[in-house]
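My main concern about presentation is that the manuscript never shows what a single data entry looks like. An entry of this sort, consisting of the sequence and the corresponding backbone structure tokens, reads as follows:
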Amino acid sequence: MAETFWPSREFITDWGQFSSRVRSRGCQLLKRLDDFPNSILVAGCQRSGTTILSRILTQSDGMTNYWFGPDDELDAALILSGYVGHSPKGRYCFQTTYVNNCYREYFEHRGSYKLIWVLRNPYSVVYSLLHNWTPDALVRLFRECGAELLRGRDVILYEIFGVQGVSRIRQACYSYISKTAQVFELKRQLDPEQLMILDYDDLVTRKVTHLPAVYDFVEVEFRNDYLRKISSESVKKARQLPSKDTAIVREMCDAIYQQAASMKTIG
């Protein structure tokens, strides 16, 4: 395993600390990406299945397992931002969902990575943001990606009451729209051989064809036993939203999801 070291005693163990100590410095979240040539990046909206895919890839033969803490995406963020020291050893897969509004940093490191952008239907994502995530995490995401899209009375309510003025489901929807919209610029800016866009639901329901395609794209040898690491149980989340919430998600998020899904590089 590659070695990681803390340059100071100011340890970061959660995303709140990362936000205040690292993100607050500006968009330097991928500062060390060029030190990891031919790396694999897995990104998309939070709660879209990026974690499971990045874990499967990291634990594949020929890849470097760099994890050193309880949250492997946070480990990636600390390494790529340069907050911790790390001596590169082999090939890496980093989950970079955390980049959020700093996504244009991808364009500063052309050719040094392959990016897998994971789409997911908004019903599953919003349900998971509301029920499988902490309230503070949603607020951070909304402030970084979502609040800039406010419209109508939400603008006034946000100006008066802050995040308390916007319902949690609308915060989740705005965040989903903002994160999903990033794929359009990524598609314009990156070379076709550098970007794969796939839908998480396709990956889990058609894993026999889609997971090998992912491995072909990133040029890592595929083994059939990797298929066992993907479960289709999470697909049910799309049906767990109450009807009132489902209507809000349909009104706010369906259009951008359909537009993004039309850009998939694997059907």
